[in-house]
Amino acid sequence: MKKHTPFIIAELGTSHGGDAVKAKELIAAAVESGADCIKCQIVFADEILHPKTGTVTLPGGQIPLYTVFKSLEQDEDFYEMMKNEAEKRGIVFLATPFGLKSAALLKKLNPKAVKIASPELNFTALLEEIASWDKPLYLSTGVSSLGDIEEALGVIKAASPSYGSKPEHITLLHCVTAYPAPPEDYNLRILPFLAGIFGKPVGISDHSLDPLLVPVLGTALGAAAVEKHFCLSRDDPGLDDPIALDPAAFAGMCAAIRRAASLESARLIEELRDEFGPDVVEKTLGSGIKTLAPSEAANYGRTNRSIHATRNITEGETISPDMIAVLRTEKILRPGLHPRWEKQIPGRKARNFIPAGEGIRFEDI
Fold it and tell me: pLDDT (tens digit, 9 = 90+) per residue, 104-144?
């Protein structure tokens, strides 16, 4: 990897709350703060999780996570407005689909590129669909193993053999799936290692709270892109606002990244050691060995996708496609089979009672 100026992505997520005026304010603020790109999330609750998934702690108390996602659903016109607003201001529009329904909506918008979030790295059907578009792809690799990344790239190549033949088709984003993520979990020495193994540009999707340490240190190691959550204020009620950067902090990060790109890496790392302390910098650099970070290890197999029952399935009942879905498990339900088995389950009989929402295992069919 060669050090250069990373592509800076302002992850707006769902901070707009469905408010078109606020969405435009976010885009304008991201442009003024120095972002190269804004990214939003196209949310349909039913393709992300089951209503029985559990709750999330928000300022209003414990709220069902499904209800939160349901409240964030918007129609095609809303995302088209965001895309038009971004491009009118000269910034790239990027969006994350979470399933085939949101992917179909995004495809109609004809974006220049696509982003797949870490939990969907193992969502076989979604990867196959996106591969058929032949558009640049940002692929986050949080809460994953080297084997998971290899399998995802293999799925993409099998679905569209010519896609991915050029390194710039796919950019991997090293990520820690924790909110917030401790900087010492970032193991940034992994960036050139991943680039060497997979022959792809590698960047960072950063969930840490500090606006400088991980992005600037990643730039020193050749990050191709830096993605960071963006909000108007951390006191806003958005799902990710508490871990996002406000415009002033984001602008400071952009300026620091661009300055870092012009400096020799060794000098830059020494500057960071002076500012943050040598121990902090060394821990953030890490070993360069790809392992699950301590803060995300408990999420493995739960934040990722697996096959779940959409309703109660009785013992002996023949399973049809509408009885299953590829969903995030999260905290209280049991994980099911890897999404690679999705096409093999319909037509088989349930060996025992499978409760609605629970993961479907080999012993259940």
Answer: 999 999 999 999 999 999 999 999 999 999 899 999 999 99
Predicted pLDDT of residue 167: 66
122 alpha carbon, distance to own chain's centre: 12
Comparing CA positions, the residue from 121, 109, 112, 108 lying closest to residue 37 is 112
191 phi/psi in degrees, rounded to 5: -60, -55
User: Where are the extended beta strands (E) located within the chain?
Assistant: 7-13, 37-42, 55-58, 61-64, 92-97, 114-116, 137-140, 170-175, 202-206, 225-229, 305-309, 324-328
Please give the mean pLDDT across all residues of the chain: 95
Domain total in the chain: 2
Tell me which residue range forms the domain holding 308. Answer: 301-364
CATH assignment of the domain containing 313: 3.90.1210.10
DSSP characters for 2-49? ---PPEEEEEEETTTTT-HHHHHHHHHHHHHHT-SEEEEEE--GGGT-
pLDDT for res 61: 77
Number of H helices, E strands in the chain: 11, 12
Tens of pLDDT along 5-55? Answer: 999 999 999 999 999 999 999 999 999 999 999 999 999 999 999 999 998
